[in-house]
Amino acid sequence: YVKDISAGSYVRPRRHVRFDFTASVTNIPAVGDVYRCADFGNTNLTVAEIVMGQGDGAAIGYILCSGVSGNNSYDNHGGTLTKRSGSGDDTIEFTYKSVGYRADDLTAQELGGWTELTQADGEYKLSDAQLSTCIFRDRVDFLIVAEKAFNLTHIEADWYGSQSKIYIRKELNFLSNLARETDEWIGQPTFGEAGQEDAFWHVIPTTASDGCYPLGCSSLVEVDPENSISLTLNDVVLGLNNKFKSGTAILEVWARYFPEEYTDGSGNQITEDSYDYAVLKAETGMNNRPTSYVTLKERVNTHWKVVQFPIELTGGMYNYGFHLKLYSNKPLQIAKVSLKKE
User: Fold this and answer.
1) How confident is the model at residue 171 (pLDDT cuts 50, 70, 90)?
2) pTM strictly above 0.85
3) Backbone CA torsion sign across 100, 104, 105, 107
């Protein structure tokens, strides 16, 4: 079988109306409860899902209702829901209204399906017509199915093409944060004196054993799975308290994987065959809202590497700072951390 993007059962996620509510609600509605909202006249709004721990501003959750054709023109003001039937409060004051989707509808859909290939002369071939739907970026997925256990040996794949592979990477237009004219949002991008407590980062920096630092740096910190560096940036300073202020910021980290040198073969010995990479992990999101956290990853080798992560900043983060945590899958050195708007 071959994975074919056109053979999936993808269904476009259904739009709902989302109503954010606060702690003033005593009896939270149940799925199936019916309400009305003045914005939609006499239309019955049926509760499809209750999501707790998320919402805009002071909201403690939101209600997703069906019954109205989805569109993008909902006014995002507050209002009142009036119960027609069900176990929830008779009236619910909502603080925010918008288009909403059920998370399961967005994540449960499988894109593509398996299409059986026919063998001819001992070979399985993809036809010209299948190429556009069976090649995902630079990969083709095959699935082998057998009724009993089997051994698979001597795999061969033949291919041909008429054009060179196209690489499209934003990094080709690389611009360091040093060259960006936007404000630096991290009050202290580098670390303090080695061996002394750094009051900004709350760590004790160390020195580079080889004396090699990026420009403007004189110390570094080491992170791993258990030891990390983190900070919280004020939502007002970043402008995120304004729901209309959003955009892309560039998180830039100067890092390297530089294990100690061992002569007895122990530790992370660098040899001709060793895998000399560590994975830098950047956890970002709304402070104290773990459900919003996203972890970005990038491989780093033994030389100082400028790693850039594009961060999508969303407005309306009232009273929530921007959370940043940096760590790695094995000891990794960091010399500088910068965050600027693109």
Assistant:
1) very low
2) no
3) positive
